[in-house]
């Protein structure tokens, strides 16, 4: 147990370190950060002064250490456009993204787990094939196409749903569905396979042999055991997929979240915001992954009780 | 560490080496799309960049105000939507092929090293793989494209590093599985050297899983490229790409939905048919799936 936890923590720290390093290298590769970050309207003396102030005449290695030190104390610079600390600019957006993420994960769990269970139980009938078709379609359908088709149908043609913003509950419907498409596909497939594995085990035969109702066999003994895998998938896959999905979906529906901020700052070349936004999302994903791994260890007695 | 192998998914429960109706249709569509992308300059009736302000926003065949020759209508600058879409698909597919090949070369080489040389080299490569999986790649792509500019070279490199880790995982796992098998051991006993064994015995066994992964990667890269171009960070106007056509046509959706629908339909046809093709190849390549 303890070596396992140590490995999870070390891996997360190494990944975070790599993210910091990659963003540092990426921003330095594109040229002098003063020219890219502060840009036009700078006198030669001002430029010299800033270079001295930010110690850009120091070696790359010293700059890297300074960057890490700044990151540790929460100093990520000012937004090029807002002239506010990037931590504030990104922080303002957290809640909107969080709401959309929660709604999508909720919808995904409600749809995908029953679908996956049905797909496993009825895998030889048309129900199973239909479930696999849905999972397949969700996977092959880019989320921006799904969004565009929904907007065309429900907003422009039927005039039922609003497109822009997040003010009412109605605004949540299309973005949530658009975000959930890929997530439902992924989770349905994992649930189905985990259920197939669980239902093939000996204890299921025992449960049937002792005369339990089929519903109890499937839900308690089948899903109960598959559940550990399913929950870990929600943590591991969903975090990454949702981060990628929010970039597209928030952009289409003008959702005031981090995904929209990232695209806008990428298009407007607002590097400090982009850099910190990427770091924030990456940290969120890494932390969620680590929590999932640790939770998995507690849920699975094979890991919990293992000696080194 | 939680081990989550990518789950095996099959569209139906038929025997592995039968080809059903959906698969035949999908393969036919894939061939049609590839051919029309390849021959796009010969097929299409108009130059994709030619503007004609007199026939702007004309609808496709079968609607009022249809302009003869513009089968799929024209966009806001009077450019032929079908010509743009086919040229865009040509560019999208070229980028996807280049990206998938780069990913194959990087991932295949690293996977081979990781599989053959156990120890620190393997640990280093596999932790790189874990990192690539942990960080959502769309974000990395946004960062790189914004910093280095959206030239086609940068775009191809981004698409290339998008999927290398899958190849690396597959190659490493296969190499390790194969090295333990008797025929490899027999080759060692017979006095064969490592390069001969890698070339003659390991590589031929890697081809079919790699072909399958290549096909699936192709579809994923098409999605990534169209998404980036849709957001305005991929292929830059006036050059048409399927994703950017959808992105730029958004402003005209209420009045001229065909500008968006034609490229959107092509993207869907492309990703669906290539995914089914990959699925079909996997069924044929992998005997272990027969009873699933």
Total helices of chain B: the number is 11
Major β-sheet profile of chain B:
none
Helix content of chain A: over 70%
| Count of folded domains of chain B | 1
Structure description:
The complex is a heterodimer of chains A (308) and B (292). Chain A is mainly α and 308 residues long. Helix content of chain A is 78%, strand content 0%. Chain A has helices at 2-29, 33-38, 44-53, 60-72, 86-91, 94-121, 126-140, 143-157, 170-199, 202-209, 214-252, 258-267, 271-299, 301-304. In chain A, helix 11 packs parallel to helix 12 (258-267). In chain A, 40% of the residues are buried. The model of chain A has no long low-confidence stretch (mean pLDDT 83). With 292 residues, chain B is mainly α. Chain B is elongated. Mean pLDDT of chain B is 82; it is low at 1-7. In chain B, helix 3 runs parallel beside helix 7 (164-179) and helix 8 packs across helix 9. Chain B has a single domain, classed as MetI-like (MetI-like fold). At the A-B interface, helix 1, helix 7, helix 8, helix 9 and helix 11 of A face helix 4, helix 5, helix 9, helix 10 and helix 11 of B.
Any chance you could write out the topology, listing elements then pairs?
The complex is a heterodimer of chains A (308) and B (292).
Chain A: H1 2-29, H2 33-38, H3 44-53, H4 60-72, H5 86-91, H6 94-121, H7 126-140, H8 143-157, H9 170-199, H10 202-209, H11 214-252, H12 258-267, H13 271-299, H14 301-304
Helix pairs in contact in A: 1-13, 6-7, 6-9, 6-11, 7-9, 8-9, 8-11, 9-11, 10-11, 11-12, 11-13, 12-13
Chain B: H1 21-38, H2 40-43, H3 81-116, H4 120-134, H5 137-148, H6 152-162, H7 164-179, H8 182-189, H9 194-231, H10 242-249, H11 258-285
């Amino acid at each position: 147990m303890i070596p396992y936890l140590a490995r999870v923590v070390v891996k997360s720290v190494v990944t975070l370190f790599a993210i910091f390093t990659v963003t540092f290298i990426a921003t330095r590769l594109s040229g002098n950060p003063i020219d890219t970050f502060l840009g036009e309207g700078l006198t030669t003396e001002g430029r010299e002064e800033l270079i001295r102030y930010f110690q850009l005449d120091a070696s790359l290695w010293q700059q890297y250490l300074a960057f890490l030190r700044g990151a540790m104390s929460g100093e990520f610079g000012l937004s090029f456009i807002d002239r506010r600390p990037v931590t504030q600019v990104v922080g303002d957006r957290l809640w909107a993204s969080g709401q959309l993420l929660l709604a999508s994960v909720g919808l995904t769990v409600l749809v995908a787990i029953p679908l996956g269970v049905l797909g496993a139980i009825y895998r030889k009938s048309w129900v199973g094939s239909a479930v696999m078709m849905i999972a397949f379609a969700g996977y092959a359908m880019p989320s921006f196409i799904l969004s565009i088709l929904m907007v065309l149908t429900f907003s422009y043609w039927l005039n039922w749903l609003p497109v822009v913003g997040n003010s009412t509950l109605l605004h949540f419907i299309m973005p949530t569905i658009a975000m959930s498409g890929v997530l439902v596909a992924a989770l349905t497939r994992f649930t189905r396979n985990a259920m197939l594995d669980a239902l093939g085990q000996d204890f299921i035969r025992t449960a049937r042999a002792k005369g339990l109702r089929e519903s109890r066999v499937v839900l308690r003994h089948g899903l109960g055991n598959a559940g550990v895998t399913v929950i870990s998938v929600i943590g591991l896959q969903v975090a990454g997929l949702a981060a990628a999905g929010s970039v597209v979906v928030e952009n289409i529906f003008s959702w005031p979240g981090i995904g929209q901020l990232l695209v806008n700052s990428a298009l407007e070349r607002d590097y400090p915001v982009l850099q910190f936004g990427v770091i924030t999302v990456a940290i969120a994903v890494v932390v969620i992954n680590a929590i999932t791994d640790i939770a998995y260890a507690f849920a699975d007695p094979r890991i919990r009780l293992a000696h080194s | 560490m939680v081990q989550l192998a990518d789950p095996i998914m099959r569209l139906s429960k038929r025997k592995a080496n039968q080809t059903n109706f959906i698969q035949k249709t999908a393969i036919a569509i894939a061939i049609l799309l590839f051919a029309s992308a390849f021959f796009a300059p010969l097929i299409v009736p108009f130059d994709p960049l030619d503007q004609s302000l007199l026939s702007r926003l004309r609808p496709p065949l079968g609607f009022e105000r249809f302009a003869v020759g513009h089968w799929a209508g024209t966009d806001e600058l009077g450019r032929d939507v079908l010509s743009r879409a086919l040229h865009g698909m040509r560019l999208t597919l070229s980028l996807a092929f280049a990206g998938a090949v780069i990913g194959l070369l990087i991932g295949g080489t690293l996977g081979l090293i990781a599989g053959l040389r156990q120890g620190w080299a393997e640990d280093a490569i596999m932790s790189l793989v874990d990192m690539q999986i942990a960080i959502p790649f769309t974000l990395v792509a946004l960062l790189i494209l914004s910093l280095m500019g959206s030239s086609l070279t940068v775009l191809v490199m981004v698409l290339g590093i998008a999927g290398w880790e899958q190849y690396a995982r597959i190659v490493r796992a296969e190499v390790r599985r194969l090295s333990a098998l008797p025929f490899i051991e027999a080759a060692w006993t017979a006095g064969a050297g490592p390069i001969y064994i890698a070339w003659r015995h390991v590589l031929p066994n890697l081809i079919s899983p790699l072909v399958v992964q290549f096909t699936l990667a192709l579809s994923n890269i098409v999605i990534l490229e169209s998404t980036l171009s849709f957001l305005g960070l991929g292929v830059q106007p006036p050059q048409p790409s399927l994703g950017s056509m959808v992105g730029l046509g958004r402003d005209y959706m209420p009045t001229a939905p065909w500008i968006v629908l034609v490229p959107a339909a092509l993207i869907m046809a492309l990703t669906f048919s290539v995914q089914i093709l990959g699925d079909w190849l996997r069924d044929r390549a992998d005997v272990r799936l027969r009873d699933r």
